[in-house]
Amino acid sequence: MSRSVVSFHYTLRNPQGQMLDASIGGEPIQYLEGVGQIIDGLEEALTGLPAGTKRVIMVAAEKAYGKRDPELIRKVARNRLPVEKLNLGDMFQTDGDRHAAIVTVVGIEGEEVTLDGNHPLAGQDLIFDVEVLNVRAARQDELDHGHAHPEGGHHHHHDHGHSHEHKHDGECCGGKGHQHEGHSHDHGHEHGHGGCGCGGKH
């Protein structure tokens, strides 16, 4: 069965109407069908839609970032975190791999810090206002590599540092990471709740 590469713009809101993320004004999201680049519920709803379609898509938490798992909340000694200043809401990567899980600081008590390994959008139903921009047949090199390539060529990016491109690796719409033990790397503050809340699953 042939697979398609789909590009789309989206605005993401929660059921209360609060805007959580959007791609408007930036690059559209592009993904290869069937490889988990975006969350399951959104991909299911987008499958088969032609270019030009505008639609409001509701995705239940179970098909987005799943339910919150209390076992992913743990306390660690503050000296394990390689930063001098620590604030509630700060995010860190649990390993040097840029696809490693992200944890959020949810509590600070003296020298003890509480970290939450759940995705920021876990447990939430999501509402996507989407516009499908383009649908095309996937090229063989994309099928071989398991992801969509930019038009005009393919450039693999090899990251040997600790940077983390969060979210539009399809992360719009999918990033369900798994927690890895290990010391944390400063992740900065570049997240908009999982980037696109639709999120590439890594």
CA-based gyration radius: 18 Å
Tell me the CATH architecture of the domain at 4-68 and 121-151 and 163-177: Roll
Separation, N- and C-terminal Cα atoms: 25 Å
Mean pLDDT: 79
Low-confidence runs:
156-172, 174-196
Secondary-structure element order, as H and E?
A: EEEHEEEEEEHE
Count of β-strands: 10
Principal-axes geometry comes out as: elongated
| Largest sheet properties | 5 strands, antiparallel
Q: Could you characterize what this model shows?
A:
Strands 1, 2, 3, 4 and 9 form a 5-stranded antiparallel β-sheet that branches. Strands 5-8-7-6-10 form a 5-stranded antiparallel β-sheet, with no helix packed on it. It has 202 residues and is mainly β. A hairpin with an 8-residue loop joins β6 and β7. The protein is elongated, with a radius of gyration of 18 Å. It has a domain of 111 residues: Chitinase A, domain 3, CATH 3.10.50.40. It has 2 helices and 10 strands, in the order βββαββββββαβ.
